[in-house]
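Demo today. Your pick:
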Amino acid sequence: MRGRLDPYRAIDRQREPQSYVDHLEKRGRTRAQAGLRRRFLRFAKVAPGQRVLEVGSGTGIVARDAAALVGPRGRVIGVDPSRVMTDAARRIARPLGLGRRLVHEVGDGARLRHATGRFDRVVAVTVLLHVRHSDAILDEMLRVTRPGGILALQDQDFGSLTLDHPDRTLTARIMDGVVARLYADPWSGRTLFGRLVRLGVKRVRLFVDIYQDTTLEPYTHAMLARRAQNAVRLGLAGAGAAARWMAAIERLAASGQFAFTLNYYAARGTKP
């Protein structure tokens, strides 16, 4: 079944869950990802004094940025189903001096333990692609948004991924074939605008951003290496072909010719 191989659906049951914490934090430290977060939170209109809820907050990368924006009079709550991720988020935030303005909770986005209309902004970033039936999460996010508040979503869309590689046939087999089996909804980004319209929120807006890497940063290298490993595991490529594919990527990077991009789609709407 699509999505069963996705480790982010059950982080706490992985053999080395801390490695996923490290991976997310490494990704979050890249300049491109920091820019994506900054532009998304501006698009979501996060501002001083607000109450903000993030669903699927992981290690708290987005929540920490939001806490800086809401200031001492605001509050940010991050909810994530993983105990490992939530513990890491609390540990990482502790020395930053954010105090009570940032709280992390273990919880299910489809059954939020918060009152109706409590939050000024409710956001989810790179969450829905991991969830096959995510309507319940959207319903709950809307429920806890106050009238006049904003619901904002952002997801990458793997159908928009581009990688300059000399073997285009193998690249398509590895990149498209793996995500089709790995994620519950790998093309979720393009659906966000329409989903908010159907949800009944008003003044829905779309924003498209691009993650790009021309140096093969460690996060991108690790992601592509996992794609190659999964392609072998799923029978989409032989071990030798996958190794040659990665070697070609590394040669491109060494010669200054590596190019990788991925579209991130964001949509926001106002609760009536």
